[in-house]
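Protocol step 6 of 9: fold each sequence in the batch and record its C-alpha cells directly after the sequence line. For illustration, a two-sequence batch is reproduced in full.

Sequence one:
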Amino acid sequence: LLIMFFTTGSFADKIGPTDGNIVGRETDTVTLKFSYETSNEYILLYWYKQDTKSTPQFLLYKSARSANSERKPTDTRLESTTTRDSTELTIRGLKLSDSALYHCALR
C-alpha cells in the first residue's frame, strides 16, 4: 500500500507532512503526521482521502488548542489525535483500498 500526502491551509498558516510517502502491508497500522504553525488558538484540522481519478472525500475533523469539537470518522479503523503543533491520522488494519492520497487542511 502507498499513502501520499497533500496539504492545504490559509496563506498566513503553514501545514505539511513530517514524513514522505508511507508504505505499509495489509493488516498493518500506519500513522500519517502533519505539523502546522498558526497564531490562531481555535483550530480545526480536516482529513480527506483522495482515490485515483476521484475528488477528495471527507474523513473527519478534530479541533486543537482552544477549540473543542470533532467529527469522528464512520470508519472505526481511523483515529486522529492533535497537539498544539501537529496532527496524526492512524489507520489500523490496512486494506488495499486505503492506498490513496491523503489531505490535511487547517482552518
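Sequence two, same batch, same settings:
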Amino acid sequence: MGKRSRWLLWMVVAVGVVGVVATGSNGGAGEGEGKGKVLEPVVTRIAFGSCANQSAPQPIWNAIIDFDPQVFIWLGDNVYGDTKRPFKLFGKERTFGPWKNAPRFIPSSPKELESRYLKAKSNPGYSRLRDTTQRSRWLLWMVVAVGVVGVVATGSNGGAGEGEGKGKVLEPVVTRIAFGSCANQSAPQPIWNAIIDFDPQVFIWLGDNVYGDTKRPFKLFGKERTFGPWKNAPRFIPSSPKELESRYLKAKSNPGYSRLRHTTQVIGTWDDHDYGLNDAGKEFGGKITNQKLLLDFLDEPQDSPRRKQEGVYTSYMFGPVGRQIKVILLDTRYHRDPLRSDGSVLGSSQWTWLEKELNGPKSAITIIGSSVQVISNLSATTRPLFSLESWGRFPKERNRLFKLIADTKREGVFFISGDVHFGEISRYDCATGYPLYDVTASGLTQAVEKAVPHVFSLIVRFVAWLTPTTMRVISKNCRFRSCTYGQPNFGAIEIDWSTAPVTLKLEVKDIVGYPVTGVKFSLVELQSRGSVPSVKAGEHRRHCSLEVNLRWMIKYRLAILFYCSVSALLLAMIGLAYAATLAFRLFLHKCKLD
C-alpha cells in the first residue's frame, strides 16, 4: 500500500514471524517458554485521565485522539454516578456547614448508574478513541496471526508458482472505501467526522485537495475586468510554490483529516486548483514543482515511480485473490490539451500505461478515479449560460476510454469523480455491454448551494431539476427530486463479499453521513452481456442517448427559460416605466386644469 499504516502492519507481521521461528530466544526462559512465542508489539504512547462528567461537553477527546495512544487508562470518576443535592446551609435538610444533617451526595440506583455509563460510552469522541485504539490493536494481532499462518503453511496456495506460496501474507479484505474532492483548506471541515464514522479502509482524494490558486474579485466593469464578454484579466492567478506548500501543510494539519490519516490509508490524484490554476492543462508552467508538493501531501515514498514520471497517475491493488479491488487514478491535468480543442485528456504515455493496467491481472472490481466527470456532460445542456469541465468536452477521448474498457474485456468497472461542487450518480448503458456508473462526490467544503445566499438555495435546486440530463440516476431514495446534492458531501463504496452474488452499494453522503443519493446492485450486473445496445438516429433512450444528441428544444431549455425570463422582466420594467410616465403626465395635466 505504501503508507505508514501499511508499513506498520508489515513490521508487526515480521515481529510475529520472528517470534514463531526464533525458538529459545528468551535467554533464561523455562522449558517451552521461548518456543513459538509471539512478541508483544512495542508500546510507545499511553494516555490517561479521570473525572469525566458524562453530562458535560467533552471536546478533550479530540486532543487525546490526535496524541494517538496505543493504550488509554481510566483513573477513576469515569462517570459521575452519584447525585449531588443542592447546597443548603439552613433549613430542614442542611447539606453543608457545622449544622449539616443530610448528605450532600446520594447514590443512584443501579439502573440509573448503568444509563450514565451508556451515555459516557456513546460519547462521539470517546467512541472514536475506543475504535482507534481497540481496532488498531486487534488489526495488528490479526495480521500477526496471518503472518504466522503464512510462515508455517507451505504450499497452501495450490497452483502457486515456485516460492509464491511460502510465507506469503494475505491481504485484508476491503469492504469500505470513501472518496471526496474540493476541500478549501481555509474553510471549516466538519465532514471528516462523518467520514471517520463511516470507518473506511481507504480514502481517495479526487482533486482540489487544497485551493492553491488565488481568486481575484468579480469585476464586470473597470480597468481590470475579470468576468463577462469584455474580460481582460484572469479571474484566477497561481500561487508561489512556497504559498502552495503552506496551504498543503494547513490542510494536512486539520484535526479531522489528521484523525482519518491515523486510521485509514489515503491515496489520491489532483484537479485544477491543487494542480496550480483553475481549468489549467498541459500549458501550465508550475506543474513539475507542484507535482512534488502533492506527492509530499499524500506521503508518497521518496523512491515512488510517481516522483519520476510526468503526471501523478497510478494504480493500487487491494485485497486477496478472488476479492481484489483495483483502483486506477488518472491524471486529467498534466497532459490535457486546451478546452474546446477536442485534443487529448491523458496524453500518449498515460494512454499506454492505462491500456497496460486494464490488460493486467484481473480483479473482481476496478475503480477508475477521474478528477472530472466521465459520463455526465452537463456543459452540453447548460451552455451558453455556463460550462463545466468533463470528459464530455473531449468526445473522442471519452469514446476511446469506453472502447478501451470494452476491448480489454475488463468487467466490474465503475468511475468516481469530483470537481463540480455537487454530488450525483450517472449511468451509461451503451458502451461496454454492461452499465458504467460514475459516482460524483464534490465537494468536502465547496458546494453550489454554499456559493449563493441561503434564500436562493431553492432556485439552485429548481435549476438542477430543470437541467436536462440523460445519464443521471433518478431514484425515489434521493434527498431532492433532481437527484443532485449541492451541499458538502463525500462518496462511499460498500462491498458485501459475504453475499452470493457479491453486492455493491455506491452512495453520496451528506455532512453528517446520511445518504442523499445511491444505488445498490450485484456485481453480476457489471459483467458483459455480449452485445452493446445502440440508439437509432433521432431516438431518445435514457442512459444511452448522449446529451449532445438531444433535440435542441430540450437541450437548450435552461437557456431558453433564462432568456425568456430576462426578456419578460425587461418588458415588465418597460411597461411599469411607461405606466408611471403616463400617470405622471396625467397628474401634471390635472394640476394645470386645477
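Proceed to step 7 once all outputs are recorded. Observation for sequence two: The longest strand covers residues 515-522.
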